[in-house]
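tl;dr need the bound structure. longer version: we got a ligand (pyridoxal-5'-phosphate) that a collaborator sent over and nobodys looked at where it sits. i said id run it. heres the input, straight from their email, havent touched it
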Amino acid sequence: MTTNKFIAWEEKYIVPTYVRPPVVFTHGQGAYLFDDQGQRYLDFAAGIAVNALGHADEQWLAALTEQAGRLTHVSNLYYTVPQIELARRLVKNSFADRVFFCNSGSEANESALKFARKYARSHHKSGDNFTKTGIVAFSASFHGRSMGALSTTYKSKYREPFAPLVPGVTFADFNDLASAAQAVNQDSCAVIVEPIQGEGGVNPADPAFLKGLRALCDENNALLIFDEVQCGLGRSGKLWAYETYGVTPDMMTLAKPLAGGLPIGATLVTEAIAQIMKPGDHGSTFGGGPLVCSAANVVFDRVNQPQFLAQVRESGAYLVDRLRDLDSPQIVSVRGAGLLIGLELRSPVAPLVTAAREQGLLVINAGENVLRLCPPLTVTPAEIDQAVDILERCLEVLE
Ligand code: PLP
């Protein structure tokens, strides 16, 4: 049995940082994944909100194949066309003036935090006892696992084993402007927030909260960073989640769906921030390489179509309607935006995740009691029906 052999090898050779179910995936097509036993699964996890166009999308694959045969990597010591084309697309379709490319969400946030520190030093009196280094983050936030990003990630379980982390981070309560007002002051260089929290439980920010953060940042000369690693690029039903709020950040970080399944990160910034970064201040060997950027250009052009985004909103509304119709005493609430939907239960969702997988549906959690539904943005109504029917059956068994 190949499954058992590979699972045994995984246990022997891989650093044990993940708990994996006993399934070995071999390929995918659209919203479906297939395992080495020929079993088919409807993928409502999408690689944790990554596979925006589903698996093995034809146009994406054609662009990648063509680019791989031409040029995969030269490093950032040289110009390459797909990177510059992607930066231009991102700038022309957002608040930003310039882009820094890296390889993951953590790295994109790491870059934003470094830019904020240097911006504060460049714009405010900097001496031996320079104190404008504070960073404000929020309860239930998730910004990544590298030291800087981890320092702004809320769960102490993730942070404590690796202390001491980057100093100067204060946590305020998410969606509580009074708490934020206590934390943000003249010593703050940045405030980092997810407009819709993903890992922390699929929690959309209140419009007044984001507007208030913008005002607090302006009053205190701090930069506002929106982490749209999970909620950005069409997932919320708008190209950027911030558009719904009418609040513009100074920096925005992107990653997960941007290259449709290949590793990429991007930090979008205003001109004033870009101007304080000089050659050698920051960098990445792989960031924005021609292969990932050729894939990202395809993803961007597909997602950035009015009909595509309208379809995401329609599919999301249909998914929410179907979930709200479920008649289970287990359900506390259905929330989210677009195709980033949380189903909060009265009890831990782990048994539901397992039961659903055994019935051919992949879903993930967002915290202990919230089931996260983040299918490919191309998911069809029939696939939504199939997923909700499976969840309904599983919820009945769990009651
Ligand atoms: N920011 C947010 C909002 C995320 O959801 C994640 C990952 O889940 C990250 C940052 C970290 O991204 P990565 O795992 O690519 O480093």
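gonna send this back to them w/ a short note. The two ends are 35 Å apart (CA to CA).
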